[in-house]
Structures are given as C-alpha cells and as structure tokens.
Design goal:
The chain is α/β, with parallel strands linked by helices and 433 residues long. The protein has 8 helices and 18 strands. The chain has helices at 173-180, 229-232, 256-270, 291-305, 323-335, 378-385, 392-405, 407-414, and strands spanning 7-13, 46-50, 65-67, 87-91, 95-99, 105-109, 115-119, 150-157, 163-166, 198-203, 209-214, 241-247, 279-284, 311-314, 364-367, 373-376, 421-424, 427-430. The strands form 4 sheets. It has a 6-stranded mixed beta sheet, sandwiched between helices. A 5-stranded mixed beta sheet has the order 3-1-8-5-6, with no helix packed on it. The longest helix has 15 residues, at 256-270. Mean pLDDT is 88; it is low at 188-194, 221-229 and 352-356. Belongs to the TRAFAC class OBG-HflX-like GTPase superfamily. OBG GTPase family. This is GTPase Obg. Its main location: cytoplasm. Mg(2+) binds at residues 174, 194. GTP binds at residues 167-174, 192-196, 214-217, 284-287, 316-318.
C-alpha cells in the first residue's frame, strides 16, 4: 500500500470556555463580603502549524478527530480559571485547508512554521462578581462557558515544486528525475511505475537550484478521472515551469505530436490556468533509432500550427546528452517567471472567525409535528448554551433577554397561546402570554 496521502477529511473541536462561578465572601471580620465568584478560563484553539519534515497527510489517515481542552471553571476568591493550552496540529508544506461544509478555502499553508487558527476556543463564562450592581449587590448569576468552534475540514496537499515533469507513462520522467537529482524514484519498463509524486532538488553547473516534481503519467481522459492523472494533477498547480517530456523515439507506436496535444488538452481541461505556465518541450530518448527524424517531423508540425514555438531540448536521460543545456534554460526561465496565485479572493473565506453573523436574524421560529414552537438561531442558541439554568436568577435573566430580542412578540404574532409548548434544542417551557 502506498504511504503517500494527499487528501483528508477531519473534524476539529476547539475547547469550551470554563463556567463562571457563583460564590460569596464570608469571613469573620469582613461584613457584607459580597459576590466572589471568578470567571472561567478560555478554551484552547486548534492551530495548524506547518512542519517541513512532513511530506504527506498520512498522519490524518487514522487520526481524524482533533479536540482541544476546555478552560477551567471559575473559582472562589474572585480567581479566574486557567485558560487551556492550544492544540497544535502539524501539517506538511503546501496544505490547503477548506471548510468541508461551505467549500470555502480557509488558508493555504506554504511557509515552514506558518500557523493558522482553524477553530477558535470559547471564552470563559463570567462569575457572579461581574454581575454585581447597586440594585443587586449579591447576584446569584453566572454564565456557562462559550462553546468552542466545531467544524469539518477538507485538507489537500499540493506539493511545493518549482518545476513539474508531465507526459505520458513510460516517456522517461522518472529516469530524468533520477539523473538530474539525488531522488530515487521507482523505474520500470511498464506503465504507471510511478504511482506517487516524487520530488528532487536540482543544482545546475552555474550554481542555480530548484525543486522538480515527477508526477504519475497522464493519459487521455485524466482530467475526467481516467488513470492516475486526476489524482495527482493538483500537484502541478504550484509549479511555475512545466517540462513536457515526450518520447521522441515513438517506441510504443504513439505519435509524439499527438501526445503533445493530448497532454496539453488534459492540463487545460483540469485547470485553464495551468496553460499560463511556460513550457519547455523535452524531446527524450534521442539515443534511439528514428528519434532524429521524428523530431524534425515534430518541429515541422509545431511550426504549421503555432505562431510562437516553445523551447525544445533534445536529450537522452540514459546517455545524459543535452541535460546541462536543459537545466540552464529551466533555471533561466524560472528567474523571470512569477509565482502563480492558486486562489482568488472569491474562493477564500473572508475571516476564519467563530461567531454568529451580526446581520443574520437573531432567531427563527418554526413548528414541530407535535405543535410545539421551535426557536433557533445562532445568537439565541449561544445565549441558551451560556445560561446556567441551575440558578433562578440566571433563568429570569435569560427570559428578559428573549423578551428584549422580540421573541415574545414574534410568538404572539405567529399565533402562540398561553400554555403552548416552546422548545429550544432539548429544553422545553410553556409560553406565558
């Protein structure tokens, strides 16, 4: 089984805030001690951090749930609960993080050590010391901690490489990579020897260096899911230069020019922007019979159909013929080719922040099959979760908040009558007109 994994779906849950405490100061020589309950601590965030030592998302194959610790509860003597430590999750360079529900991209992690909060911890609930007023100097009210953010994420790894080798199976991409770098890809005389991307570093004679990725061979229909190509085409998206490797010997009976057109069609079908990247045509296997004649025919057809001809370098990976010129030209092209942005602003989530939308309605009213009125909405549900229903004062405060939000009026307008059942989550109470 391949140990390379470049996609994963995981669930993350930030820590809940600690509950606030109801307490009173009672000391022998301190009259009228008053409220003394402290606030709860902040819940831990879930943070992704880039680790250059990782190469795949294999760590997420079996461990798909990541949960940060909750904050400590508030304590007496006005002491706050301890905030929880953040949960650090290590990911490889080149990891794109999407919200699985909305499809929006949260972040693109490419720099070693880069950090991003993918789930925010909840704030701690307030203790009763926070609710003291001149009218109510001894409140028996505290808040529960705010729930931490919970979300499902889709991770995609797009390897970091300056140059991508593309071409049909068995055109010599793996052999070329093994010759120009120290990489040791599997090489065999059969199709799809390469089943995972291989990465290697090139250093030219002039001292330039760049990273090269050898991708599994493409075939016609790869962009629609045929063969292995569709699984690994994403890895070419970060490259700035494409080396299009063609078997100029036509040893398998294929036409080099038709191969060139077919691969470009697959790149264009997968992502139109891939054709913006400059290409160098690598005419491989020039040590084989008929290669020179096939190259002449290939150049002639290119001239007939294209106004601007790409650079063509005849090489032989086996005899190392023409490699230095190819690598120098590649380094030169890289120097004048800018980075390509993978995502525009419309694809990115504006702000990865956990909280309700201020513009969204505070609550929504629906009706269940048993004729009970159902209240929902982010703002209302958050108030509900943070209310300590063990304290009568807190319950009365929640009732006042609902009235202030206009829930009572809205229920009356919908036809609610005295004694009707009202439900928020699993909590039920009677409507009092």
């Amino acid at each position: 089984m391949s140990m390379f994994l470049d996609t994963a779906k995981i669930k993350v849950k930030a820590g809940n805030g600690g509950d606030g405490m109801v307490a009173f100061r009672r000391e022998k020589y301190v009259p009228n001690g008053g409220p003394w309950g402290g606030d709860g601590g902040r819940g831990g965030n879930v943070i992704f951090v880039v680790d250059e030592g990782l190469r795949t998302l294999m760590d997420f194959r079996y461990n798909r749930h990541f949960k940060a610790q909750s904050g400590e509860k508030g304590m007496t003597k006005g002491m706050h609960g301890r905030g929880a430590e953040d949960l650090m999750v290590h990911v490889p360079q080149g990891t794109t993080v999407r919200d699985a529900e909305t499809g929006k991209i949260l972040t693109d992690l490419i720099e070693n050590g880069q950090k991003f909060i993918v789930a925010h911890g909840g704030r701690g609930g307030r203790g009763n010391i926070r609710f003291a007023t001149p009218k109510n100097p001894a409140p028996e009210i505290s808040e529960n901690g705010e729930p931490g953010q919970e979300r499902e994420l889709q991770l995609e790894l797009k390897i970091l490489a300056d140059v991508g080798l593309v071409g049909f199976p068995s055109v010599g991409k793996s052999t070329l990579l093994s010759v120009i770098t120290s990489a040791k890809p599997k090489i065999g005389a059969y199709h799809f020897t390469t089943i995972v991307p291989n990465l290697g570093m090139v250093r030219t004679q002039s001292g330039e260096s760049f990273a090269v990725a050898d991708l599994p061979g493409l075939i016609e229909g790869a962009s629609q899911g045929v063969g292995l190509g569709t699984q690994f085409l994403r890895h070419i998206e970060r490259t700035r230069v494409i080396l299009h490797v063609i078997d100029m010997s036509a040893s398998e009976g294929r036409n080099p020019y038709e191969d060139y057109l077919a691969i470009n069609k697959e790149l264009e079908s997968y992502n139109l922007r891939l054709m913006e990247r400059p290409q160098i045509i690598v005419a491989n296997k020039m040590d084989m019979p008929d290669s020179a004649e096939n190259l002449k025919t290939f150049k002639k057809k290119l001239a007939e159909n294209y106004d601007e001809l790409p650079q063509i370098f005849p090489i032989s990976s086996l005899t190392k013929q023409g490699l230095s010129m190819l690598l120098d030209a590649t380094a030169e092209l890289l120097d004048k080719t800018p980075e390509f942005l993978l995502y525009d602003e419309s694809e990115m989530e504006e702000e990865a922040y956990y909280g309700f939308d201020e513009d969204a309605p505070a609550f929504d009213i629906s009706r269940d099959d048993d004729a009970a009125w159902v209240l929902s909405g982010d703002k209302l549900e958050k108030l509900f979760v943070m209310t300590n229903f063990d304290r009568e004062e807190a319950v009365m405060k929640f009732a006042r908040q609902l009235r202030g939000m206009g829930v009572d009026e809205a229920l009356r307008a919908r036809g609610a009558k005295d004694g009707d059942l009202v439900r928020i989550g699993n909590f039920e109470f009677e409507f009092v007109d």
